[in-house]
Each structure stands twice: as C-alpha cells, then as structure tokens.
Design brief:
- This protein is mainly α.
- It is elongated, with a radius of gyration of 19 Å.
- Helix content is 54%, strand content 0%.
- It is built from seven helices and no strands.
- It has one domain.
- It comes from Caenorhabditis nigoni.
C-alpha cells in the first residue's frame, strides 16, 4: 500500500550497511541579482499554490494529499518562467523530477506492511559474511572513493526482491524503477544545489528545510 511505500523513503542514507559521506560537493556560484529575482518569482508562484512549497517532503503517505500536491506543483511550474540563472534552472529540474517521482509513486501499490520489512531486511543483510568465524578488520584502501549518498538509488536489490515475491505486475515494477530513477535525479540535484537554493530562499523570506546529504 502507498502508506507502507512511504516508509521506504524515510530510511536513513546508510541503508544496505554503508555509512555515507554527509559533506555535499556544493555548486560554487557567486551571488546574482538575476537569480534572486527568479527565486522571488518562484516563491510568488508557489505562494499561489501552497502545497507545492512542501516539495521537499513529497511523496506523502496519503493518496489524496499526493494528488493535491501534484496539482499545486503543476500549476506552480506553469507559473514559473525561464531565466538566465543556473541555480534556478536546476531548481525547476528538481521540481519536475519531484512531480514525476510522486506520480510514479502513487501508481505503485503492490507493497504491503508484511512484504516491505522482509525485503528491506534481505537487502540490508545480503552483504554480511555468512561464515561464523570472525574476520580481521579490512584495512582501508588508500584514495578509495567515498560512497556517494545517492548510490542507494542505483541499488537493484529491492526491485529484484520485489520481482521474486511475484506480487507486483510488470507495470508496477516499471513504476518502481521509475521511482528510483527520479529519486536519484532529485538526490543529485539536491546534493549539488541545496546550499545555493537555501541562500536565495532565505533572502526572500521562504524557509525550506533541505535534508542533509
């Protein structure tokens, strides 16, 4: 059910046993009056459709609220115009991916309160050593890349396990794959731009609590 799908997206970013970096590689962009005006325009549009301002919290556990949110977000996006500001363009891409993410989310209803915990447990434990014998700690590899917090959306384990369960149709599995794709896009855009977006929104008096990545 949708309410249990929502639980999956509340999981911490250390899902599947990886501790991930919390220091985002932010976009370095000097302050721009043009950008400030475009974000003011975005705020004006979202003020007309208040639920669209909850884009960071979407998707929601209630189907009706998701539908209301999608309507408000769509109207807000129609209201916004193009502009010569990279941060603003990236923000509009984020809103577009959010709309697609929530739309596919609302169409995937094959996970139940019984199946979700079992599947997540399987994926979380799949890389644990199967031998009961203790293993010495593995020394770190010099210059090894820090796991990216958005990598959790490229993991196929959940979809593979859903396919094994046989409770999701091919269309529902396709919707779930699309959820992953748009969640990955959102994560990457947020990781790169959240500091810049927060700066402009703070200047125009609109408080947005972007999650830490």
């Amino acid at each position: 059910m949708i309410s249990y799908m929502f639980l999956f997206f509340l999981l911490p970013i250390s899902i599947y046993g990886q501790e991930l970096s919390t220091s985002p590689p932010c976009r370095e962009e000097p302050f721009s009056e043009i950008c400030l005006r475009k974000f003011q325009e975005a705020k004006t549009c979202m003020d007309k459709f208040p639920l669209s301002k909850e884009f960071v919290k979407a998707p929601f556990s209630e189907k009706v609220k998701n539908e209301q949110f999608l309507n408000d977000l769509f109207q807000s996006e129609l209201c916004m115009t193009d502009g010569e500001c990279e941060s603003y363009r990236e923000f509009r891409l984020y809103l577009s991916d959010t709309e697609s993410h929530v739309t596919y989310f609302a169409n995937t209803t094959c996970i139940t309160s019984e199946t979700l915990p079992v599947i997540l447990k399987t994926c979380n434990e799949r890389n644990l050593p199967i031998s009961p014998m203790p293993h010495p700690p593995i020394p770190p590899i010099p210059h090894s890349p820090i796991p990216h917090p958005c990598d959790r959306f490229t993991d196929s384990c959940l979809i593979d396990e859903l396919r094994k369960q046989g409770q999701c149709s091919s269309g529902q599995l396709g919707s779930f794959q699309n959820i992953y794709t748009h969640a990955l896009n959102r994560c990457q855009l947020l990781r790169m731009n959240s500091v810049q977006w927060s700066r402009y929104f703070n200047l125009i008096g609109m408080k947005i609590d972007f999650p830490d990545l």
